[in-house]
Design brief:
The chain has 334 residues and is α+β, with helices and mostly antiparallel strands. It has helices at residues 20-52, 54-65, 104-118, 122-135, 150-158, 183-186, 194-200, 215-219, 221-225, 262-275, and strands spanning 66-71, 78-79, 85-97, 142-148, 166-176, 188-191, 210-214, 229-235, 241-248, 255-258, 326-330. It contains 10 helices and 11 strands. Strands 2, 3, 4, 5, 10 and 11 form a 6-stranded mixed sheet that branches. The longest helix has 33 residues, at 20-52.
């Protein structure tokens, strides 16, 4: 009898063949889903910006594109009783900055260039710009230097692309024909102070306006000033005007005719100087103190300094509201 022994064999299971096409189709489906989800999110954001918050963004865009400017009126001129011109206006240039158009990352570079052009210390320029940023009036120009010459004004205009937010303002300045004879009567104008702005902003005064400080300029401030106008303009990305959309012209101030004869005042001054032993320059002889210095009211009309912001009180008789020195008024204008 024979016995048969079967020997088992090891069997290796073969791996199932992977369907590569199915894997690729799955990956494309996942990518397709991600693309659809991304477009859905973008569409939702676009709907929110255009429909839900569209009016708010439209207002901000219009505010950046359109600016409302104040048109300063021509201040009235002053004559003596014979028709001689005592006070008039002259055009002048001023370098100013609109901090809303001056990017913070570029501020230091712009100030460094302005220091060379305007010959003003960088510390002073930065102080003025930062004070306007903190005030909240970011669209109101802050003057960096007044009475600049025409060559400096042309340089600023030519280099405006490297000086964002910097512009040249053309504004009238007072000029006194005989400042040594009637300064105590005519007075002078100066930049509005913080306290004055708080009191007068309801009457249309701005941060850069000039107001009468003493004498006739102070007493007849309302008549001499006139009424400011308004101008709506379109600006580019640098804040420069491109075109005017609407304009309300300013009304010039009234001209004044004083009851004073300037020639008589001049002769009286000479007689007084001669009686006191003082020459025409205002320097006395040996043992005589100098008097009657040649000072022009326009020389004191610089912007007020911090700590000296209050209105100067008018001298007795000259600054009172009784207005004894005025003979009449002429039509508005130069």
């Amino acid at each position: 009898m024979f016995f048969v022994r079967r020997v088992g064999r090891w069997r290796v299971e073969r791996k199932k063949k992977v369907d590569e096409q199915a894997v690729i189709r799955g990956r494309f489906a996942l990518l397709h889903g991600l693309v659809i989800l991304s477009f859905a999110i973008l569409a939702a954001q676009l709907w929110r910006m255009q429909v839900v918050e569209g009016s708010q963004f439209q207002e901000k865009a219009e505010a950046n594109r359109l600016r409302l400017y104040t048109v300063q009126p021509q201040r009235g001129v002053v004559y003596d009783r014979t028709g001689k011109l005592l006070v008039k206006n002259r055009p002048s240039f001023a370098a100013a900055a609109v901090v809303a158009d001056l990017p913070r990352p570029e501020q230091d570079a712009v100030i460094a260039k302005l220091e060379q052009i305007l010959q003003v210390p960088a510390v002073e320029l930065e102080k003025r710009i930062q004070s306007r940023r903190g005030s909240g009036h970011i669209f109101t120009p802050i003057e960096l230097k007044t009475d600049i010459d025409s060559e400096t004004a042309f340089i600023l205009e030519e280099r405006h692309w490297e000086l964002p937010g910097i512009s040249v303002l053309v504004e009238p300045r007072r000029q006194y024909a005989d400042g040594n004879t009637l300064p105590h009567i005519l007075g002078y104008v100066g930049r509005i102070s913080d306290d004055e702005y708080t009191q007068l902003k309801g009457s249309g005064y701005g941060l850069n306006d000039d107001v009468g400080k003493m004498g006739v300029e102070y007493t007849y401030e309302r008549e001499l000033r006139g009424l400011p106008g308004r101008e709506q303009a379109e600006v580019d990305v640098t804040g420069r005007r491109r075109r005017t959309l609407a304009q309300e012209p300013a009304k010039a101030g009234d001209n004044l005719v004083l009851s004073i004869d300037v020639d008589l005042q001049r002769e009286m001054l000479k007689a007084l100087q001669a009686g006191m032993g003082i020459n025409a320059v205002g320097n006395g002889g040996p043992g005589v103190p100098p008097a009657f210095p040649h000072t022009s009211p326009g020389e004191t009309a610089a912007p007020a300094r911090p700590g000296h912001r209050g209105r100067l009180a008018p001298p007795a008789g000259c600054g009172s509201r009784s207005r004894p020195a005025v003979s009449g008024a002429l039509p508005r204008g130069w």
